[in-house]
Amino acid sequence: MSRAALFLRKRGIHPRLAAILVGRNPASESYVAGKRRAAKSCGIDSLLFRLPASTSQSGLHALIGRLNRRRDVHGILLQLPLPARLSAEEALVRISPEKDVDGLHPENLGRLAAGVPRFVPCTPKGVLHLLDFFRVPVEGKHVVIVGRSRLVGRPLALLFIHRNATVTVCHSRTRRLAQQTRRADILVAAAGRKHLIRASHVQKGAVVVDVGIHVSVSPSGAKRFHGDVSPSVRRAAGVLSPVPGGVGPETVAQLLANTVRAAARCLAAKHAGSFERSHLHRL
Ligand code: NAD
C-alpha cells in the first residue's frame, strides 16, 4: 500500500476510483483491469461501471453525473476510446474537474497551460517522472515531441516548457520529420505509428522516450508489444525507454497518484498541512 493512501485511510478517507467502460473493446478491458489491479495494490478502492455499446450520450452523462455527486468517489476515469457514435469531448467536459484524475477536462488542461496545474494528464506526467527518475536533465535541452494529441503531445509540450526546455512539436503535417527529430537532445515519440522513428531520425546519444503501444499477435496466439520507435534506434540513442515496461506503467502510476491527490481534498484542515508536507510533493 502506498504511504499516502495509508495516511488517508487512517483518517477515514478511502481513496476510490470509478472506471467507466463503454462497450467491449479488448484493449480497453485489459487496460482497465491493469489499472484496477495496480489501484488495489496501492490501497485505492476501485469500482467498475460497464455500459453497453448501445448506451446513449445522455445515458453516459447521467452516470457521470451520479459519480460526480457521490462523496465516496474521488476520481472518475472514462476509458477511451468510446464507441464511434459517442462523443468523448462532450462526456469529458461533464466530469467534475475535481474528480478528473485523467486531467483531460478543459479546465484542467487550461490550468496546465496557465502554469497552475491541478490534475496533469497521466502519460505526459509519467514521461517527465521517468526522465526525473533516471536523472535526465531537462532544463535548456532541445526536446522534440512527435505527436500533438490532447492526451499526450500537447500537454507534454507544456510540461517541458514549464521545465525550461526548448520544445519542438511535430505532427502528421510536419515536413522532413527526420530533420526536426535529429535536432533533439530528448526525443519523445507519441504518434501512434509503429516503428515510425528509425535510427536515421535520432541524433547520436539522444534520450528517446517511446510512448507508442502497438500489439501484434503471432500465428501461435502470442502477443507482442511494439512502440513508435524501431528497435534499430537502440544503436544510435544514448537511452531508449522500453515498450512494454516504460511509459505504460508510469501512466498507471500517475493515474493512481492523481486519485490519491483527489481524495486528499477531503482531508480535514487539521490533517491537510501534514499531508502536504509529507506526501503531496511525491504525487
Ligand atoms: P493520436 O492518434 O491521438 O495522436 C497522434 C499524433 O501523432 C497526432 O498529433 C498526429 O498528428 C501525429 N502523427 C501521426 N502520424 C504522424 C507522422 N507520420 N509523423 C508525425 N506525426 C504524426 O494518438 P495518442 O492518443 O496521442 O497516442 C499516441 C501513441 O501513444 C499511441 O500509440 C497510443 O497507443 C500510445 N499511448 C500510450 C500510452 C501509454 O500509457 N504508454 C498512453 C496513451 C497513448
Q: What's the short story on this structure?
A:
The protein is α/β, with parallel strands linked by helices.
Task: Explain the overall architecture.
The chain is an alpha/beta fold and 283 residues long. It folds into 2 domains: 3-102 and 248-282, Rossmann fold; 122-245, NAD(P)-binding Rossmann-like Domain (Rossmann fold, 3-Layer(aba) Sandwich), CATH 3.40.50.720. The protein is 39% helix and 16% strand. The protein is built from 11 helices and 10 strands. It has helices spanning 3-10, 26-41, 57-69, 88-92, 106-114, 122-133, 153-162, 177-181, 233-236, 247-264, 269-278, and strands at 16-22, 45-51, 75-78, 142-146, 166-170, 186-189, 207-210, 214-217, 223-226, 239-240. It has a 5-stranded parallel sheet. Strands 2-1-3 form a 3-stranded parallel sheet, with helices on both faces. Helix 2 links the parallel strand 1 and strand 2. Helix 2 (26-41) crosses helix 10 (247-264) and helix 6 (122-133) crosses helix 10 (247-264). It is globular, with a radius of gyration of 19 Å. Bound molecules: nicotinamide-adenine-dinucleotide (NAD). The site of nicotinamide-adenine-dinucleotide has 24 residues, from helix 10. Nicotinamide-adenine-dinucleotide is lined by residues 123, 146-149, 151-153, 170-172, 174, 177, 190-193, 196, 211-213, 247-248, 251.
